[in-house]
C-alpha cells in the first residue's frame, strides 16, 4: 500500500501514478488471486480502473475519477453529517457512494460466480456480464461539492509529489552516508 495509507482500514486501493498523466496503480495489502475473496477484491478494484479510464486523464492525482469521487463523497458526508454524526456519515458516504455501489456489485456478483464454479474456475468460462467496456457513471453532484473536490485534489496533487521529492532529498544523503560508513567499517 502507498505510504500515506499505511494505517488505513482499506485493504486495496487504485490510485493514479503521481508522475504520469494516464497511468493507474492498484495496491493490495494482501494480494490473493488464489482465494475467492481475493479474486472478488481484484474484480472490485478493476471496476475502479474502468471508472478511471472512463473519466479521463489528468496530471498526477488530478484526474476526473478523483474529482468526481471526492465530490460525491463530500456531498454524502455533508448531507448526513449534521443529522447523523460524522462517523455514521463517513460510513454512508462510502457505502452509498455512486462509484462504490457498482464496484461492490461487481465484487459480489463475481464472488457468487466463483463460489458456483467451485474449483473449476477458468478464464475462458467467465461470463460476458463481467467483461465491461464502460462503467456507466453519471455525474450528479452539485457544484459546490465539485469545487471543494477540485480544491482538495489540487492541494494533494501538489503536496504528494513535493513530500516525495523532499523525502528523496533527505533520504539520499542519509543513504550515501550510510554506505560510506559501511565502506569505512569494512
Ligand atoms: Zn471501492
Structure description:
This protein is mainly alpha-helical and 186 residues long. It has one domain. It is 60% helix and 5% strand. A hairpin with a 7-residue loop joins strand 1 and strand 2. Helix 1 packs antiparallel against helix 4, helix 2 packs across helix 3 and helix 2 crosses helix 5. The longest helix is centred in the last third of the chain and has 43 residues. The protein starts with 11 loop residues before the first strand and ends with a helix. The model has no long low-confidence stretch (mean pLDDT 91).
Keywords:
binds zinc ion; 5 helices; two-stranded antiparallel sheet; 186 residues; 5% strand; 2 strands; single chain; globular; mainly alpha
As a percent range, the share of strand residues is 5-15%
Tertiary shape: globular
Total helical elements: 5
Detail the poorly predicted runs. none
- What small molecules does this complex bind? zinc ion
Task: Strand order, main sheet: write it out.
Answer: 1-2
How many discrete structural domains?
1
Report the strand count: 2
Helix content: 55-70%
Average pLDDT works out at 91
Q: Could you give a short account of the major beta sheet?
A: 2 strands, antiparallel
**Radius of gyration, Cα only, in angstroms?**
20 Å
Q: N- to C-terminal separation?
A: 35 Å
Element order, helices and strands?
Answer: EEHHHHH
Amino acid at each position: 500500500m502507498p505510504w500515506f495509507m499505511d494505517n488505513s482500514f482499506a485493504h486495496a486501493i487504485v490510485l493514479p501514478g503521481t508522475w504520469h498523466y494516464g497511468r493507474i496503480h492498484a495496491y493490495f495489502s494482501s494480494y490473493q488471486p488464489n482465494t475467492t475473496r481475493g479474486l472478488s477484491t481484484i474484480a472490485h478494484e478493476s471496476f475502479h480502473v474502468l471508472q478511471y479510464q472512463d473519466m479521463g486523464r489528468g496530471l498526477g492525482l488530478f484526474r476526473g475519477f478523483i474529482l468526481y469521487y471526492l465530490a460525491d463523497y463530500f456531498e454524502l458526508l455533508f448531507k448526513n453529517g449534521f443529522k447523523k454524526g460524522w462517523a455514521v456519515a463517513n460510513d454512508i458516504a462510502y457505502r452509498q457512494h455512486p462509484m462504490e455501489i457498482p464496484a461492490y456489485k461487481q465484487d459480489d456478483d463475481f464472488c457468487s460466480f466463483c463460489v458456483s464454479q467451485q474449483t473449476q474456475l477458468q478464464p475462458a468460462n467467465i461470463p460476458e456480464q463481467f467483461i465491461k467496456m464502460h462503467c456507466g457513471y453519471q455525474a450528479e453532484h452539485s457544484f459546490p461539492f465539485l469545487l471543494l473536490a477540485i480544491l482538495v485534489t489540487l492541494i494533494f496533487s501538489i503536496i504528494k509529489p513535493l513530500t516525495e521529492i523532499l523525502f528523496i532529498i533527505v533520504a539520499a544523503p542519509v543513504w550515501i552516508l550510510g554506505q560510506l560508513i559501511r565502506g569505512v567499517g569494512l
